[in-house]
Amino acid sequence: MKKIFLWLCVAGIVLSGCTTSKSDTTSTESATSSNASGGSASSSVHETVAAENSGYQGKISFRNVGWGMSKEQVKASEDMEVEEEDHESVAYYSKILGLESGLMYFFVDDQLARAGYVVTEKHTNKNEYIENYNDLKKSLTEKYGKPSSDDTLWKGDL
Q1: Are 99 and 132 in contact (CB under 8 A)?
Q2: Measuring CA to CA, which residue among 16, 53, 48, 17 is closest to residue 35?
Q3: Residues 6-58: pLDDT tens digits?
Q4: What is the dihedral angle through the alpha carbons of 73, 42, 148, 54, rounded to the nearest 10 degrees?
Q5: Residue pair 66/112 in contact by the 8 Å Cβ criterion
Q6: Distances (CA, A) of 120 to 2, 41, 50, 66
Q7: How far apart are CA 96 and CA 104, in angstroms?
C-alpha cells in the first residue's frame, strides 16, 4: 500500500502540471521538492498553490470536485470507499479507461490543491503498457486539448 501511495504522490505532482504553464510548474516543483525532502510546508508552497488554483476556485475541474474544496467535500463527492487517508491526502482504488488505478487527492490547509491517477494494471506483455499510455494520452488530449508540453522519458528496456 505504501508503494501505491508513493506512486500516487508522484502522479499527482506530474498530473498537476497539466493545468499550469512551464514557469508555474518550475516554481511548484522546487517548492514541492523542498517540502518532500523533510522540510515543513512553507508559506511559499501555500502561496504557489493558491496562485495556481485561484482561477479555478469553486469550479468543477477534476472528476466532481473543484480546487479549494475541503477534504470532507471531496470525500462526499466520491461514491467509493476511502483506502487511505491522512491530514494531507485521501486515496481510493479506481479505474480509468477500464484500467485498475489509484486515485489521490492532496490538500493544503484543508483545500484541494492536487489530484491524480496512477495506473496499477499489471500486464504479462509489457508492450500493453505502451498501448495503455497511448490510449490515455489520446483520451486526455481529446478531452482537454493539446498539452502545453509533451515529453516521453524512457527508463530501461521492455
Answers
A1: yes
A2: 48
A3: 444 444 444 444 443 333 333 333 333 333 334 444 445 445 555 555 555 55
A4: 50
A5: yes
A6: 13, 29, 30, 25
A7: 13
- State pTM to two decimals: 0.60
Q: Which of helix, strand or coil describes residue 131?
A: helix
Give the three-class secondary structure for 43. helix
- CA angle centred on 85, ends 81 and 46, rounded to 5°: 130
Q: Which three-class secondary structure string do you get for 58-97?
A: CCEEECCEECCCCHHHHHHHCCCCCCEEECCEEEEEEEEC
